[in-house]
Structures are given as C-alpha cells and as structure tokens.
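Tokens in:
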C-alpha cells in the first residue's frame, strides 16, 4: 500500500518545521524536507555539493526533477503518512520562482496544507533564525510573496485535482486532525 503524501507548504520562515515537531510528538509520520532531498540529489546524482540556502540559485527546474526522484527513493514503505515540507514559490533576493504544478502531480500528493501567518511574524522568525540565509524582505514584501504563494497553491491544487487547506502554524490541533482525516480518506 502506498503512503498518503501531503504537501505542507508556506513561505520560508512561516513555521513549517516547528509545527511538524509538535505534530510528530502526537502522531506517526515520515517527514521529508524538499530542500534536503534536492541537496542530496545534487550531491549523489550530479556530484555537486551545495548549501541548503544556495539551492534557490541553482537550476530550479533541475532541482524539481531531483526532488521527485529523491522523494521516490526516500519513501519508507512502513510509513502510512508522508509529509513533504515544501514550497509553492522559491524566493530569491529580488524575485521568486513559481513551482510547477507538475512537481506535486509527480509526487502524487493527496492534499496540500498551506501555512499562512502574519507577515510581521514571518519577518521576526527570519530575523531571529541565524541558522538560515534567506532573502531579506520586510513585512510588506512578505505579504506580497505570501499572496503569490497562496495563489500558486490554489493553482497547483486545481491542476492536480487535490484539496487545499490553509492553516496557521499555531493551530497544531487542527493540523493533526487534518493529517489524520487525510490519511483515513486516502486509505493510508
């Protein structure tokens, strides 16, 4: 039986990883991070060592192909639920790249959960996270990028015929319930 794959998306710094730490404490799932899969693919398939935060400046179409291959190779057959921590837009310093719906179709998502938060909160998280090097944006710019990311999530889900749920990163109970419901519906 194939696992239920749910894409958890949102801007970098919205709180996807933090939310997943809380979710994993309450239920079993396999957490796969898109950037880690791409980085590993660049190293093993292409022989290119790239820092995680430099992936946004690599060939983005190639990154998406590596993501699909990496996810397929990394699926744990014992996992009933797989959460792909990913993005609908890839930010660069002065622009952003819309992730093609075909990527989400290729990984066979059952649904997408988009995490949305106040741009000021995302700006604070980014400023406080010294472990990452993200494009610098103020709250006004983050609001625009987040709106574009939500629109792209809506487009992706329409194109792949899967549901989109928009949640906040602080609503752990709702996200846990949503994962459980999606797993039951998908048969995982």
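Residues out:
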């Amino acid at each position: 039986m194939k696992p239920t794959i749910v894409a958890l998306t949102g801007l970098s710094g919205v709180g996807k990883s933090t939310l997943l730490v809380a979710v994993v404490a309450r239920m079993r799932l396999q957490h796969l991070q898109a950037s880690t899969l791409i980085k590993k693919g660049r190293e093993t398939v292409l022989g290119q060592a790239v820092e995680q935060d430099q992936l946004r400046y690599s060939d983005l179409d190639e990154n998406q192909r590596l993501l699909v291959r990496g996810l397929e190779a990394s699926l744990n057959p014992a996992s009933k639920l797989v959460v792909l921590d990913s993005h609908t837009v890839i930010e660069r310093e002065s622009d952003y790249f819309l992730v093609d719906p075909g990527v989400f179709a290729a990984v066979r998502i059952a649904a997408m959960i988009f995490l949305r938060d106040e741009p000021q909160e995302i700006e604070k998280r980014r400023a406080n996270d010294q472990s990452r090097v993200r494009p610098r944006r103020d709250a006004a710019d983050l609001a625009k990028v987040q709106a574009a990311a939500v629109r792209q999530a809506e487009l992706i889900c329409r194109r792949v015929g899967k549901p989109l749920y928009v949640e906040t990163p602080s609503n752990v109970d709702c996200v846990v319930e949503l994962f459980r419901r999606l797993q039951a519906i998908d048969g995982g």
